[in-house]
Specification:
- 40% of the residues lie in helices and 14% in strands.
- It has six helices and eight strands, in the order ββββααβββαβααα.
- It is globular.
């Protein structure tokens, strides 16, 4: 059962979870969708990702929400190195990754299929254009059916861990 630590005592509350956000380099409220954080790998890892790494390794949050901004020219929601290589492969994240609200509404640079390929399991809020983008990507091979199945698997695991299925 997914649990959240309640204080230092180690007591846990079954079925509760948390979402950590905004993953990553979300440093401003103005022009968040137009921001591009240009930084070195060392700066990214030692300053901007360290808190996420600690939270994931120590408490396995239920979800991560990606940010609107780009990181070195790639939207965080479409960033495979961030969502899959770092969070899942290096830090062992077991939960679900989701986009921030309306991430895919701002042009062709951030697509629903790109989000799924990167390791986002859910595109928020989800719209017909996103569904069509995923269908087209599956059809033309830019999104593998295995990637989509992995997204569905992460989503179902989080639902089963919630207190809705005790």
């Amino acid at each position: 059962m997914c649990t959240v630590k309640a204080g230092r005592s180690g007591d846990c509350k079954s079925g509760c979870g948390t979402t950590i956000k905004h993953f990553a380099c979300n440093n401003q409220e103005d022009n968040r969708k137009g921001s591009d954080s240009i930084l070195s790998e060392r700066t990214l890892r030692e300053i901007y990702l360290k808190g996420f790494e600690i939270a994931i390794r120590e408490s396995q949050p239920m979800m991560i929400m990606t940010s609107y901004n780009k990181i070195n020219g790639i939207h965080s929601a479409n960033n495979y190195d961030l969502c899959t290589k770092a969070a899942r492969d290096e830090w062992g994240f077991q939960g679900m990754i989701m986009t921030d609200w309306t991430t895919t509404h701002d042009g062709p640079e951030c697509t629903a299929a790109g989000c799924m390929h990167a390791g986002n399991d859910m595109v928020m809020p989800g719209r017909r254009e996103d569904q069509e983008n995923i269908r087209q990507a599956l059809h033309n091979g830019t999104l593998d059916r295995k990637e989509l199945k992995a997204c569905i698997c992460h989503l179902v695991k989080v639902i089963w861990k919630s207190n809705m299925y005790e």
